[in-house]
Design a protein that fits this description.
With 238 residues, this protein is mostly helical. It has a domain at 171-238. The protein is built from eleven helices and no strands.
């Protein structure tokens, strides 16, 4: 989560080369287009993935199931976003059907949040975050979702509103302690992800690594104490 993104490796894996050769033999085959796009994504070759998948964008009626249509457009929108084509990602997002599967819906909300934020739409960014947050009934599961969205929320000035929504879920003392630690981790993440942040300043990397390890260590210790407290309440630990 916190390491700067590494550039993709040069060349192609055997599976990607095979998918590319198959598509060259049958260049209009939508399944083969999908296969090659996915293979590029597996290698973090986002530009190549977007360039391949864009060829099938307006052919979604050829897929029988809404799940297949969602998977394809989700990959295309995600690849477009990752290679900086934010307007294209938004256009693809507009063609997507909101999925019924809870896990797919969670991924969809995260993607919405990122795309809307990078198209400078604060209201839709916050709406997407709130929709995803509603899928979490407990603070313990919501905190990971918040971390995934924190940079997007901060970009459009929606971080305070999102934090307030999360605070309402922190109903116990344990949750409130976790929230304090979550704030430390989220600040580190936004510092690393932001332009000119830690990832681009090598002199700060060592300091931030130590600070991050300290915060995560403290979080781990707190979770251990909470677990021991729960076990004692069940008479499972002495």
């Amino acid at each position: 989560m916190f390491e700067p993104k590494k550039p993709p490796l040069p060349g192609l894996k055997h599976e990607t080369k095979a998918a590319k050769d198959a598509l060259a033999e049958d260049p209009y085959n939508l399944e083969l287009i999908n296969n090659l796009g996915f293979a590029y994504i597996e290698e973090d070759k986002w530009t190549e993935a977007a360039n391949v998948l864009i060829r099938g964008w307006k052919r979604m009626s050829e897929f029988d199931s809404p799940e297949k249509r969602f998977d394809y457009l989700y990959r295309l929108a995600g690849a477009s976003f990752e290679c900086g084509k934010y307007k294209q990602a938004l256009a693809v997002l507009m063609d997507m059907e909101e999925p019924e599967d809870p896990e797919d819906l969670q991924n969809y909300c995260r993607l919405e949040c990122k795309i809307y934020a990078n198209n400078d739409n604060m209201q839709k960014t916050l709406k997407a975050f709130s929709k995803g947050l509603e899928l979490h009934r407990e603070f313990s599961s919501a905190q990971g979702y918040y971390l995934h969205c924190v940079q997007s929320l901060k970009k459009v000035g929606a971080l305070d509103a999102a934090r307030s929504a999360l605070e309402k879920m922190a109903t116990t003392d344990d949750d409130k302690q976790r929230l304090k630690l979550l704030e430390v981790v989220s600040e580190l993440k936004t510092s690393i992800d932001s332009p000119g942040g830690v990832a681009s300043n090598k002199r700060l990397q060592g300091f931030m690594a130590v600070a991050l390890m300290g915060a995560l260590g403290l979080l781990t210790y707190l979770l251990y104490l909470l677990e021991m407290r729960s076990l004692r309440s069940l008479n499972l630990a002495k």
